[in-house]
Amino acid sequence: MSSPSRPLSEALRDAPEAARLLARWETSQRVARSIAPVCRSGASGFDPLLPGRCELRDNVLLLTASSTAQSAKLRQVTPRLLSTLGGEGIQVYEIRVRVQPGFTGYPEQGSTQPSSKDAAWLQPAASAGETMRKLALAVRESPLKHAVERLAATLVKRARG
Are 48 and 63 in contact (CB under 8 A)? Predict the structure, then answer.
């Protein structure tokens, strides 16, 4: 006889690692719901309820913006966010805003396609490698010299096809 089915969230709570992950996700969702109105008014275009946008780790709130402009708006409303969270009884010591440009809520922004192999910058001129080798000879012994030498070797390989 098969056992009665139960929700996935219940099954996950039985495994300690999964239970911790689920608890962190639920807390992050609670935080996102709490700050959503502030984000709508002060940082338009930022939706903390979207996956990957809002995460609480060890009382540090991580917000992922899709542009530097959006990041600046979020930083400006940080005091309001902290006040809102404090009013909800959610303890947050710090808010960190990071930018992930390819992460966007609008399909016309950003690019999900990788750069193509036939991009012009991937096909250097035949003389590019030799030019970099000459430059490497003019640079004193240093990490920069080694980097220029590696670049020269890469350009030579790419020029050969």
Answer: yes
| Tally of CA atoms within 13 A in the half-sphere of 30 that contains its CB | 15
Q: What is the pLDDT of residue 1?
A: 47
Q: Tell whether the model's pLDDT for residue 66 goes beyond 70.
A: yes
Q: Are 99 and 71 in contact (CB under 8 A)?
A: yes
For 52, 53, 65, 86, 126, the CA distances from 113, given in Å and listed in that order, are 19, 21, 20, 41, 28
Backbone angles phi, psi at 61, to 5 degrees: -90, 120
pLDDT of residue 100: 87
Length of the chain: 161
3-state secondary structure (DSSP) of residue 64: strand
The angle, 0 to 180 degrees and rounded to 10, between the axes of the packed helices 68-76 and 16-42 is 90
Q: What are the residues whose beta carbons fall under 8 Å from the beta carbon of 29, sequence distance 6 or more?
A: 49
